[in-house]
Design goal:
By secondary structure, the chain is α/β, with parallel strands linked by helices. It folds into two domains: 116 residues, Rossmann fold (3-Layer(aba) Sandwich); 255 residues, no CATH class. The protein contains 15 helices and 13 strands. Strands 8-9-10-11-13-12 form a six-stranded mixed beta sheet. Strands 2-3-4-1-5 form a five-stranded parallel beta sheet, sandwiched between helices. It has a two-stranded antiparallel ribbon with strand order 6-7. Helix 6 crosses helix 11, helix 7 packs across helix 8 and helix 9 packs across helix 10.
């Protein structure tokens, strides 16, 4: 079994709270991780499992051990029971682990029944740092879903296409997305086409025959379902004019590449948008690796109208980080100088240009690093 970075965080949250909720996209590995933590597992999407839990409830409440409830939102009746069991003995921690893809039903039940009793933790698909034997270029191409190729097998990109079809036809409507599956599939392809670009809801809406309000509501939903990541602009008080619309990225590059018709590394490298794909990949790896270590950051980007930009800006503890991403193994001095100028504009405390280099050079404030080198720098900074 692959050791997940987030496992220590889950254990820490369960030591502090009566319950924890492990959320994330389907097939990201939530069930595998939970089963490694406890054998008391119930899949509440299955009527037989609900009955088994009902009949064993009193016995389970009287014994120690972590109870895992998968897809808890499928059986709303369990939430009042959970609240009652927790309130009967608030000193007991580590009693319940709830699993689920984020949906309005799950979040409503959590907020109404378990507020203050449960810690929410997000599990992303497999990170590059969790797959040391898989070449970084393959992890970038295939994405992080275990069954999508990250752990072996030749199912890419068909697995990804089937995954998205199932989401569009079954899961997203069930979770509350008010679009017909055909419209959802078109919307997914269109968001893939503008991956890493400045978001223009009106332009997307014209293509779909929808208002920009509706398009933005769909974007909100897909962001909440862990498919897309929206980066708001970092807006310091400068005299320069700034870009103020968000950028939108696909969170999993395997899904992105499948939607755009890519099936091998050579095809990917021949695309005009390959730099945007690499940029989104690096941003996701950094943000999700930090979150798995308990350091949740809010990612931004920065861009002026005259072209000074930083791909990733985030506040980590008391320091402001600026990260620029380049798809090259030999970035030039001019590139670093322009990045450094942009980082100065926002007053960044730490400045790192990430490229496909072998050696990391960092003087404590600025430097050049590979992706793994940047994660090493962040690890030292955060302990």
């Amino acid at each position: 079994m692959i050791t997940r970075t987030i496992q220590s965080l889950v254990a820490a949250r369960l030591a502090d709270y009566p319950a924890a909720g492990l959320v994330g996209p389907r097939q990201a590995g939530k069930t595998t991780l939970a089963r490694a933590l406890s054998s008391l597992y119930f899949d509440l999407e299955l009527p037989a499992e609900r009955l088994r839990l009902d009949l064993q409830w009193d016995a389970l409440m009287g014994r120690s051990g972590l109870v895992v409830l998968d897809e808890a939102q499928a059986w709303p009746e369990v939430f009042p029971r959970l609240r009652g069991a927790i309130d009967a003995d608030r000193t007991r921690t580590g009693r319940f682990l709830l699993l689920g893809s984020v949906s309005p039903a799950l979040m409503r039940e959590v907020s109404e029944s378990l507020a203050g009793r449960l810690a929410l933790i997000e599990l992303a698909p497999l990170l590059s740092a969790e797959l040391p034997d898989l070449p970084l270029a393959e992890r970038w191409l295939l994405g992080g879903f275990p069954e999508g190729g990250a752990t072996g097998g030749g199912r890419f990109p068909q697995w990804q296409l089937d995954y998205l079809t199932l989401l569009a036809q079954r899961d997203l409507p069930t979770w509350g997305l008010p679009a017909k599956p055909a419209v959802t599939e078109r919307f997914l392809r269109m968001t893939a086409a503008v991956h890493g670009q400045i978001w223009n809801a009106s332009q997307i809406g014209q293509s779909l025959g929808l208002s920009y309000h509706t398009v933005n509501s769909y974007l909100d939903f897909l962001e909440g379902a862990f498919l897309l990541r929206r980066l708001p602009p970092w807006l310091p008080n400068l005299k320069k004019r700034l870009i103020r619309s968000p950028r939108v990225y696909w969170r999993d590059t395997g899904l992105l590449h499948a939607l755009l018709g890519i099936n091998n590394a050579d095809a990917l490298l021949n695309q005009a948008w390959v730099g945007a794909s690499w940029e989104g990949f690096v941003i996701g790896q950094v943000v999700e690796w930090l979150a798995a270590r308990g350091k949740v950051v809010t990612p931004h980007y920065f861009r002026t109208t005259d072209g000074y930009e930083v791909d990733l800006v985030f506040q980590l503890d008391s320091r402001l980080w600026a990260v620029e991403v380049k798809l090259t193994s030999n970035p030039g001095e001019a590139e670093f100088a322009r990045f450094n100028k942009a980082a100065e504009l926002i007053g960044a405390d730490r400045r790192v240009l990430v490229a496909q280099v072998k050696d990391t050079v960092f003087n404590g404030q600025s430097g050049l690093a590979s992706l793994s080198g940047l994660l090493e720098i962040l690890g030292k900074e955060t302990g």
